[in-house]
């Protein structure tokens, strides 16, 4: 998951509105969003290479999502970052306690969101302390929360506009996530990537032959406990090749 924008406790009827793109190598195997056979109360996609998930939610309203941290790392981590998502949604610790007791040394660089019906906590193993977020609209990509990369700033602004215009819907979130416009050359982060690749990944929706946006997830949790969540999946060409939608009541 390489781009997440979300509104927490901003809208009177929707305590949580979240839109996310998972960017990954197309060759890495994964299961689409569904109820897990070994954990029937958990809904999400699953990584079939290392296990775990990039985003999942339980029937009790426990939600977690993780992004990798953009850095040059050579040491192999003990655990997959997707393990963080699985552990939280199948566990019982509060978001704050889970984040505070998470052993970050077991994982390569990550940022994570862990939430229940009452609290949403941001955590990372790259210097940021666990933080219970106040009401607001936020963005997370492959760096610290709200790092002002162009695609994050643009997507966060679009989500804020949709909330303010009472236009938040799953389809509206998907339209926002489908933005393939790269950043202007002068706005792109300076790094050691080739220019063409750096430009491609500066867009909210990434299309390259080997790496890109594998799926988009849109979620709305209502004040009455109903959750609407959907996933759209894409081929390496960027063409839609699957969609799943679910509605359930948090209990």
Short descriptors:
six-stranded antiparallel beta sheet, 18% helix, alpha+beta, 251 residues, 34% strand
Helices and strands, with pairings:
Elements lengths: L2 E6 L7 E10 L4 E6 L6 E6 L7 E4 L4 E6 L13 H8 L5 H7 L8 E6 L4 E5 L6 E2 L3 E5 L9 H15 L5 H8 L17 H6 L10 E11 L4 E9 L5 E10 L2
Describe the fold and architecture.
The protein is an alpha+beta fold and 251 residues long. Helix 3 runs antiparallel to helix 4. Helices cover 18% and strands 34% of the residues. The relative contact order is 0.20. The strands form two sheets. The chain has a seven-stranded antiparallel β-sheet with strand order 3-4-5-6-7-8-9, with helices on one face. The two termini are 27 Å apart.
Brief summary of the model shown:
The protein is an alpha+beta fold.
Helix/strand class: alpha+beta
Mean pLDDT: 95
Which percent bin holds the helix content? 10-25%
For the largest beta-sheet, the strand count, sense and barrel status come to: 7 strands, antiparallel
Radius of gyration: 17 Å
Portion in beta strands: 25-35%
Describe the global form: globular
- Give me the strand/helix succession: EEEEEEHHEEEEHHHEEE
Give me the count of strands: 13
Strands in their spatial order, largest beta sheet = 3-4-5-6-7-8-9
Distance linking N and C termini: 27 Å
Number of helices: 5
Low-confidence stretches: none
